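Form 7-S
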Amino acid sequence: MKRYCLTLDLIPDEKLIKEYKQYHAEIWPEVKQSILNAGIIDMEIYLLSNRLFMIMEVNDEFSFDKKSEADLKNEKVQQWETLMWNYQQALPGAKIGEKWMLMDKIFKL
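Output:
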């Protein structure tokens, strides 16, 4: 099993952050199923101010490319991603359209 950590910023607006948290309290069933189908075993998202931090634990078959390809074919996931862009903002250095950015592990106890 592998673990990935990713980060993304939200638009720094209290009302928008509250709405974003509400959406994530009950994600759409189709989005949850797409996450599970991709081989993601567990996912947690943490928030500090407007900075998000995601931890994903995945099975050996998981691939970011395969997940992206499947997401592009899933209408509900595309609707979710479009909706979430109303709350999210790309990090400095992100490519056009890039949301969550993979973090490098620099320490392990």
